[in-house]
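Problem 12. The chain below contains 99 residues. Write out its predicted structure in token notation.
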Amino acid sequence: MARYREFRKINSDTVRSMCIRESYYTRGDVDAYTHLLVDLCDYEKEITMDDLEEITEDILEHSDVNSFCGQYGCSEEELFQSTLWKLINECCKTFVERI
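Solution.
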């Protein structure tokens, strides 16, 4: 039986920096952007894969997906996977605690 558990938390400042760096969220208004950074990227809660998929969907829903796909020659699914990877590896911290 496992004696430890692993969980993630996401940092909204890092998500914001990623959006700026990657030119994401150019089609979202202030309310939508606030929802992303305050509600979806709440550092106080543990982040699941479902949460990360929801955050990725929100980011791409408010981004110029067609432009990205045309520029990089990728499908929407490849763009989704790439954005999800960035969220996991650049914006999340993984913690381990004894149970």
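Discussion. Residues 12 and 20 are 12 Å apart (CA to CA). Students who got a different answer should revisit the alignment rule from Section 12.3.
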